[in-house]
């Protein structure tokens, strides 16, 4: 082993695994801080782990920093959005490159985010913080909100508890849903936000900041389900917008990154661009984009973002320039309805132009209809030199997938009913 040890806050999930592999592959010992509630069997590349309660940040900072000092940790990273503030606090305590610990909450708490971004001159949806029923009534009567409006928890992620409501009745149900969608570690407030709906196409901007200098790696087009629950169904990058629009998007995103104190590390900023090219920032997260965006960056642009993030966290120069000029897209597979997964046909295998596939639902297991990003059953990546050809190939592969689900509650007619839920389960 060479160099300092690396500590990941939460080592679960594909992005954390890629960071762990990048670190281990370069000779670093890799350690993890893991939530008390869900201690997994340690991954083979982990040299050790500290188990702590992420819902009690003061104690978690103490326990993690004590562990990190004993193990000679020289870099702390997280791919887990819920832990980005904790990461900033731990980095400060250890004197390692990290984000501003006084502002890091603003990349987690969406009420603070809207406030801080607006104060920095970034265009955000008009937002009202709602504690109770009276606040909700007031917010819905506010002409700056209007219908449709978006109701979301202050501390959520992955679309959990987010609803686009088109009437006061829907808004009331949506508010109850948002209140129940507590953060992953159960430590956040039950407050919710009511937001004006931003009309336009959705994109995200993938950026890496080092010593407060930001490089925008790519703009990503997001495919999202319509209707009340917005689930991401695919990502494609790099997207080239008209130069004036692209410059405006980069300006807004850079200001957003500064305003939430991102100094060293990744950010994923979600924006809506309206038909006039105006950019509204929906949210910013102080982490790499999830949904295999790191894999897309690697295959489309030749940027090893995991190695780069490791270098940023270690305080070394990071390689962020593209070495390829291709295109990549990821498509997510969802269940056509809630129930028991009975069969899967036609899911792509890795091969030329399909560098990555991931299936995570067991045949016979219970699946949900897509309501949040976590309901996605699998994903595959298609890549190549030409954007249109890559998208066509991904569409073709998607059309060949058949996901069969026995709906819950079980249909009285038995197996014959299954075909009603059998169709291509890739959202267009
Ligand atoms: N103000 C808004 N206007 C339009 N769509 C929105 C707005 N807020 C959220 N959405 C939609 O809901 C999705 C999830 O909301 P978001 O704020 O990104 O929460 P999360 O942190 O759970 O991803 C977004 O990707 C977008 O499709
Ligand atoms: Mg989002």
TrEMBL record:
Biased composition (Polar residues): 417-428
UniProt-listed Pfam families: ATP-grasp_4, ATPgrasp_N, LAL_C2
SUPFAM superfamilies hit by this protein: Glutathione synthetase ATP-binding domain-like
UniProtKB keywords: ATP-binding, Ligase, Nucleotide-binding, Plasmid
Residue ranges of domain ATP-grasp in the record: 114-314
Chain positions covered by the region annotation Disordered: 406-428
Single Gene Ontology MF annotation: ATP binding
PANTHER family linked to this entry: ATP-GRASP ENZYME FSQD, FUMIPYRROLE BIOSYNTHESIS PROTEIN C
Entry protein name: ATP-grasp domain-containing protein
Annotated organism of origin: Streptomyces xanthii
């Amino acid at each position: 082993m060479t160099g300092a040890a690396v500590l990941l806050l939460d080592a679960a999930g594909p992005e954390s695994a890629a960071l762990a592999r990048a670190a281990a592959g370069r000779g670093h010992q890799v350690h993890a801080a893991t939530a008390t509630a869900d201690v997994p069997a340690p991954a083979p590349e982990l040299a050790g782990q500290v188990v702590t309660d992420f819902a009690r940040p003061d104690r978690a900072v103490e326990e993690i920093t004590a562990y990190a000092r004993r193990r000679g940790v020289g870099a702390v990273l997280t791919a887990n959005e819920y832990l980005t503030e904790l990461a900033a606090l731990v980095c400060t305590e250890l004197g390692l490159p990290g984000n501003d610990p006084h502002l890091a909450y603003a990349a987690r708490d969406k009420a603070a985010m809207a406030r801080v971004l607006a104060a920095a001159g970034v265009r955000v949806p008009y937002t009202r913080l709602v504690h109770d029923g009276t606040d909700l009534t007031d917010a819905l009567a506010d002409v700056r909100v209007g219908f449709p409006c978006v109701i979301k928890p202050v501390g959520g992620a992955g679309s959990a508890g987010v609803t686009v409501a088109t009437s006061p009745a829907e808004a009331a149900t949506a508010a109850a849903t948002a209140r129940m969608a507590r953060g992953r570690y159960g430590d956040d407030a039950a407050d919710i936000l009511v937001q004006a709906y931003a009309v336009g196409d959705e994109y995200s901007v993938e950026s890496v900041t080092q010593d407060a200098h930001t490089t925008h790696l790519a703009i990503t087009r997001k495919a999202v389900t319509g209707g009340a629950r917005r689930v991401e169904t695919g990502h494609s990058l790099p997207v080239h917008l008209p130069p004036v629009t692209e410059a405006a998007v980069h300006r807004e995103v850079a200001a957003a990154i500064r305003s939430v104190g991102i100094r060293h590390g990744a950010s994923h900023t979600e924006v809506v661009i309206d038909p006039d090219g105006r950019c509204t920032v929906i949210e910013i997260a102080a982490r790499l984009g999830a949904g295999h965006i790191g894999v897309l960056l690697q295959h489309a642009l030749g940027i090893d973002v995991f190695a780069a993030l490791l270098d940023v966290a270690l305080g070394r120069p990071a390689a962020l320039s593209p070495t390829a000029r291709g295109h990549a897209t990821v498509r997510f597979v969802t269940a056509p309805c809630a129930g028991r997964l009975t069969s899967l046909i036609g899911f792509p295998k890795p091969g030329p132009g399909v560098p990555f596939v991931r299936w995570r639902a067991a045949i016979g297991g219970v699946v949900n209809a897509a309501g949040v990003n976590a309901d996605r059953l699998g994903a595959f990546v298609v890549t190549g030199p030409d954007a249109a050809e890559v998208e066509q190939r991904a569409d073709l592969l998607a059309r060949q997938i058949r996901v069969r689900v026995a709906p819950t509650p079980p249909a009285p007619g038995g197996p014959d009913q299954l075909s009603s839920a059998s169709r291509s389960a890739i959202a267009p």
